Amino acid sequence: SAASFPTWRRPIGGEKRPQFGTRFLTDPRQVFQHNAWDNVEWTEEQETAAKKKVLENNQPLPQEKQDEYDTRANEYWNDFYTVHENRFFKDRHWLFTEFPELAPQFSLKQESHLEESEAASTGDQEQSQEVEPISLSDGNFPGSTATYRILEVGCGVGNTVFPILKTNNDPGLFVYCCDFSNTAVELVKTNPEYDPGRCFAFVHDLSDVEANYPIPDGSLDVLVLIFVLSALHPNKMQGSISRLARLLKPGGVMLLRDYGRYDMAQLRFKKGRCLSENFYVRGDGTRVYFFTQDELHELFTAAGLEKVQNLVDRRLQVNRGKQLTMYRVWIQCKYRKPESTG
């Protein structure tokens, strides 16, 4: 039977569930038959217990300690990538299922649509061949001749960028990727799969809204934020999203997947790790925020974007060896820049 969404996890606007998977747990006795179950309903008891646990840990650290984690954020992320290099966050099999905007058939479709509209807008065939590049100082920037541009912010060591380049062989595609950590960006650039003809990696602090991007405003088809916005101080989130929105073309989309409120990772934080409400510091000094759908909706709409999708993915992961169950909560969003009017 069709699942009825409790109010705390109903998709905003009532749109259909995306393809978060098809393995549903119908018999609780079968829980240890598989490693994970999709779209798991929470009981009221579970929800109440989660809220209680978060409230218990809601004693923020002293302000000077919070400031220290803020000013040393770059150092902590560099240390993280130095230690782990590329041995983490490997699982990206969901990427093209959830975000077809990154797949080749999507960008090729966009490209042919672009060519049709260009040819229709001018009778002069010669002129339609020469698409005027967007000017950035001298009008020349990496990927300036591309017909489909993707930027991943917070790219880490390239676990999203490289699958895109490998899967999407559209000749008009150009992928930009940036990270706060110069260690991470160096790991991307030294990866044998890095192709400077199709990709441009650069160091960038997302929270610094005054810093320039190496691409002009209004030039991107897709912006990707995967588990990155949650690493920012909550006060800096709105400015960062509004700045990114300017980079999108009219009709361009921002794709996000990030931690949801009451995710297992939030419930596991011990006392003394809370920086502010729903914002924590890990043992390695890196920080993480846990969102609600409404918070993200407000951030995107305040940046002038329109909702395409805003959904919660509740997944039950199972450690069959230890007979443990772990409840994950992620939020997935797609917001579009309105087509220019007139």
Automatic annotation (TrEMBL):
Keywords: Cytoplasm, Methyltransferase, S-adenosyl-L-methionine, Transferase, tRNA processing. GO terms for biological process: methylation; tRNA processing. CDD domains: AdoMet_MTases. Residues 119-130 have a biased composition (Polar residues). Residues 1-21, 110-140 are annotated as: Disordered. GO terms for cellular component: cytoplasm. Signal peptide: none annotated. Pfam families: Methyltransf_12 (PF08242). The keyword tRNA processing applies. It comes from the Eukaryota. It is found in: Cytoplasm. It is an enzyme of class 2 (transferase). This is tRNA N(3)-cytidine methyltransferase.
